[in-house]
Amino acid sequence: MATPSHHQNPTPSTKKKKTHKNPEANFLYELNSCSKSKDLKAAISLYDSALSNNTRLNQSHFNTLLYLCSTFATDPDSKDLALRYGFRVFDHMMALNIHPNEASITSIARLSAAKGDGDYAFEMVKKLGDYQVSPRLRTYEPALFCFCQKLEAEKAYEVEEDIDKMGLSLEEPQIAALLKLSADTWRGERVYNYLHKLRRSVRWVSEETCKVLEDWFCCKASEIGSDVGSVKEAILRNGGGWHGLGWIGEGKWVVKKGNVEPNGRCCCCGVQLDCVDIDDVETEKFALSVAGLALEREVKANFREFQDWLEKNADYEAIVDGANIGLYQQNFAEGGFSVLQLDAVIKEMYTRSGNKWPLVILHNKRVRALLENPSHRKLVEEWMANGVLYTTPHGSNDDWYWLYATVKLRCLLVTNDEMRDHIFELLGSSFFLKWKERHQVRYTFLKGALKLQMPPAYSIVIQESEKGSWHVPIVCESDEESLRSWLCITRPGGCEDECKTGSTMETCEIVNGPCCKSSENRNNEKCDDKTTSMTGKRKERSP
């Protein structure tokens, strides 16, 4: 008879918990558990026990403790304990000659800022260089925010300069803090510059940043002269949507919240917003980058010939990616290159541009095949007679040709190519998405009928008008742009007739109320009649 075994495998409930025999590893494991559970007191108890047991501590131990202490440094109930142990832990770390890394310095900077000592926080950041360690934006934040809160403007600006020297870029929270500091200390020119930094950094602002802007404009009045002609030139040069030359107009600002119509017209003041393009410098840089890469990868003589041809034929307003359109939805048995689809796009763009033919980029192998087909020959010859076709040579990549032509001529590009492949990654352009939004025309064919998706009528970015008004998009949870609120900031006489008559306030509505709502001046008691002297400019750009 079989006897039961007394050596059965243990069940999960009977297994012993895994432990680390190494005391240093066990200490780190338990510290990390405290960090995950946000248990500062337990972590401090572990630290005290480790000291009693002469446990050898390393950088990871200290960083975990410092992180926990810095996390609780702003908690009213734990602040004193966090600060006391945080600095004690850091001093212990330095006494053991363990070099801090970026995480260590970020934590001690946060502890210093929580104590109100922005100077020490900034001093710690600058010492990172002694350890050949580069700071990150978060490393500077404690000192920057501390100086901003204490209205120590020159110190905050010094931190910003150091951030810039390190090649780091400010983001919305830091820019908003500097903007508020400048507003609170009545530095109008600084406010203007930070508004433009916001414009370059974000597409829309948070509610918190919006409140900072409202408070400034509701309190501020200034008296500025301007040269209208130079404003328009600056806006054209910048690609539309801003001039960057200073405040324009005189008198108090009118601040409202409202919506923008699908055609880009502000419901509050009637100003037409721009579809913003990249500026002249960026365009030239972009064109040179594309040409440089193309000349590396294409036969130089072929691409230079195209460049020379384009210089002599520079009046096109639209470029068409012929292969992309001809092969659209042709992945079926009888599918091939659709001449009819391409012709529909050519004729539609011809009509939309006031009877100007677009330029179609197509590989010569594809063109030869079409000419050899009797049913297509006549249409292709018609294209050639109208100057529609440029045929790229054997072994070439069409993408370089249509991209270069579009950038160089600053015109529209008809293609569904999302431009995500390695060619466009090589460009590495920070303004590539802005350029695509302004220039790309997408298309569909529904039951053979062409439908074009033109670039948007306006760009959802902070905009500065030639008359000095500002329009600031605010973060929106809905995907429906008509529901997005904008901050409309104008001066009397600086907007369209709708603003003068107030008709939009009566007729334009959103779901929960009127389109435009005037911001209350919460700071009347502290506003004065000071004026700020600056220069300003702006120019309209048609979408």
Question: Would you kindly provide a written description of the structure presented here, covering whatever features stand out?
Answer:
It contains 23 helices and 15 strands. By secondary structure, it is α/β, with parallel strands linked by helices. Among the domains are: 145 residues, Alpha Horseshoe (Serine Threonine Protein Phosphatase 5, Tetratricopeptide repeat); 174 residues, Rossmann fold. Strands 6-5-4-7-8-9 form a six-stranded mixed β-sheet, sandwiched between helices. A five-stranded antiparallel β-sheet has the order 10-11-12-3-15, with helices on one face. The protein has a two-stranded antiparallel ribbon with strand order 1-2. Helix 6 runs antiparallel to helix 7, helix 7 runs antiparallel to helix 8 and helix 17 crosses helix 18.
What would you say about this model in short?
Residues 521-531 have a biased composition (Basic and acidic residues). This protein has 543 residues and is α/β, with parallel strands linked by helices.
What CATH architecture label of the domain at 280-453 applies?
A: 3-Layer(aba) Sandwich
CATH class of the domain at 280-453: Alpha Beta
- For the termini, the CA-CA separation is 93 Å
The CATH topology of the domain at 280-453 is given as Rossmann fold
* Overall pLDDT confidence: 86
Structural class determined from secondary elements: alpha/beta
Low-confidence stretches: 1-7, 13-17, 496-514, 520-543
Largest sheet entry: 6 strands, mixed
Given the structure, what is the number of helices? 23
